[in-house]
Amino acid sequence: LRQGPDLEKIKPGLPDEDLRASAPVILGYIGNMSPERGICNLLEACHYLAYELGYGNWKCILIGKQTSACDLLQFAESLNIADHIIFTGFLLPDQWIPKLRAVDICIDPGSSNPGNDTSTTNKMMDYMALSKPLVVFDLPERHVTAGESALYAHINDNFDLAKKIAILIDSPDLRQLMGKIGLQRIQTTYAWQYQRNIL
Predict the structure, then answer these.
(1) Measuring CA to CA, which residue among 161, 167, 112, 171 is closest to residue 136?
(2) How far is the C-alpha of 158 from the C-alpha of 101, rounded, in Å?
(3) What is the pTM of this model?
(4) Largest pairwise CA distance in the chain
(5) H-helix or E-strand containing 179?
(6) Given a cut of 90, is residue 105 above it in pLDDT?
(7) What does DSSP assign to residue 33?
């Protein structure tokens, strides 16, 4: 049972033009900015992407309310990636959907733990409904939901998370294919119209 997206509301469409024009490649995350959601994993992966793998021409938009005691902007500054990161704070759906439409690669950086190992986050299915390729850790439920619409990094390995992001930066055709696979999985299995019948 999954709380799938409503395809009348969350679907491909016109992107946020300002965000789309801000860099050749846009990474994206939506959700609470809390330790269990892995937001620090994503920021560390972004550091590796820039300084270990040599990718410089990208932005990463982080959509959601900060619930961590850690100051995430300060953490990004300590990693020398603040210029790459866009923190939006909480946004309503009519605000965040166009922004995610502008994103090239969506990320769910949640680490392995009892909750993440046995559940699928809403953000993953929202990404798929918007026809976006995913990068996630290699957790059981991630495979069940995303299938071949995701690249799977070694569990809790932020450097490998960065390497999987780099693969997709270099592979626009693969991004497009994975996005189509994810959207099809939502349209045929995980959309709200199917899940509400199970409920």
Answers:
(1) 161
(2) 25
(3) 0.93
(4) 48
(5) helix 172-185
(6) yes
(7) B
